[in-house]
Structure formats: C-alpha cells, structure tokens
Amino acid sequence: MACFAVTPVAHMKDTLRITEIFFSLQGEARTAGLPTVFVRLTGCPLRCQYCDTAYAFSGGELLSLETILERVASYRPRYICVTGGEPLAQPNCIPLLEKLCDAGYEVSLETSGALDVSAVDPRVSKVVDLKTPGSAEMGRNRYENIEHLQPHDQVKFVICSREDYDWSVSKVIQYGLAERVDEVLFSPSHGQVSGRQLAEWVIADNLPVRMQLQLHKILWNDEPGH
Questions:
Q1: Within a domain: residue 3?
Q2: Per the structure, how many domains does the chain have?
Q3: 36 assigned to a ligand binding site
Q4: What is the pTM of this model?
Q5: Domain range holding 90?
Q6: 193 DSSP assignment
Q7: Is residue 60 a known part of a binding site?
Q8: Residue 162 labeled ligand binder
Q9: pLDDT tens by residue, the chain, 226 residues
C-alpha cells in the first residue's frame, strides 16, 4: 500500500503558498518608485488575457507566516506589497496582512476585485482592480467591494481599448470613485493601448484620475523578481 506524507492540519493553518519574496521598486500605484518588498502569493481563480504573472498560477513554496515575516524583515523595508496571483484566494492572506501592519510597515494589497475584501485589515491600502470588458474577466467583478473602500484605498482600471476607456469612465462616474478613494488609476494594457493614447484621452476629458505607466516594465522589461 502506498504511503503519502500528510502535513498536519494544525501546521497548515499557519502557512501560505508563496511564489516569491523580493525587494525592488514599486512599479505602479500611489507608491510607485519607492523601494518595496513584494510578497507574491501563488494561485489565482482569474485568467485575464493581459496577465503578466501567469508563473504565479501554480507551484510556489509553502512557508509559515513566521518565515515570511522573517524574510520580509531581512530587507529592512518601509513598504510592503502583498500581491499575486490573487492573494485573497488563500485565506491566510488576511492574518499575514494584519501581522505586517502590526510590525509597523506601510502595507498595500493588490487584488483583482473578484473576492471579498471586507475582512482586510483597515490599515492596509487596498489596490482593487475593476476588470474591463477587454480583460476577458469583467463578469468576475465583485461590485459589493466598493462599499468597503476607504479613502486611502485605490481603484485600478487596465485599459485595453477605447471601449475599455469609455466603460471605465462610466464606472468612475456611476460609483463616485474619485470622491470615494484618493487614487483612481488608469493603466494602458501593454501592447494594446499606448501610454500616449491613454494620456490624450484622459487630458481631453479632464478626468480626476491618475494615468500611470508600469515602471517595472520600463526598467526591467517585466523580468520576474522586479
């Protein structure tokens, strides 16, 4: 009879599957350009057509929360970004965020917006995507999350076309996002809309949004670990 090693449940409850932990510059959102430790969790229930982190869909290393905190601390950071994949797909993401805040870091969470954010520690700055029609995952948007947004949170739209842009503008207006959060972010989908084109649309409409380019793509051409 085959014998399989089983990790005790008591041990599993304090672990997360991690693709990578690395120190780099934040490439987007409010803290773009600031030295930041990234904790990339493994797994994602979405398959956006423009995804640039498909390598985080599977694999990874099972680490205890204590080990994750030790690795983060070794960089002596000020800013931490918990990302994925979709970090909230792992329930232990919630206690990790709490422990990072307790340690005194400024913590952000990058989430697809498809999963419930209501349990996220209020000290965390949530960067919540609203998936556009061009993402191929618009149907996964959890609009209930908008009620849980705080002023220090951020809402991001990745724009793949003029249709996406018009749709995003309509959502900014419909949900009063510019009044609800400090930062509404419009990003061009790499290879689909140029930064210049999106900038011209934003200027023409005088939108209350921050148009952003992904700094890590400019500096490192999207290499893993940056």
A1: no
A2: 1
A3: no
A4: 0.90
A5: 15-220
A6: S
A7: no
A8: no
A9: 443 333 443 346 799 999 999 999 998 899 999 999 999 999 999 999 999 899 999 999 999 999 999 999 999 999 999 999 999 999 999 999 999 999 999 999 999 999 999 999 999 999 999 999 999 999 999 999 999 999 999 999 999 999 999 999 999 999 999 999 999 999 999 889 999 999 999 999 999 999 999 776 677 676 666 5
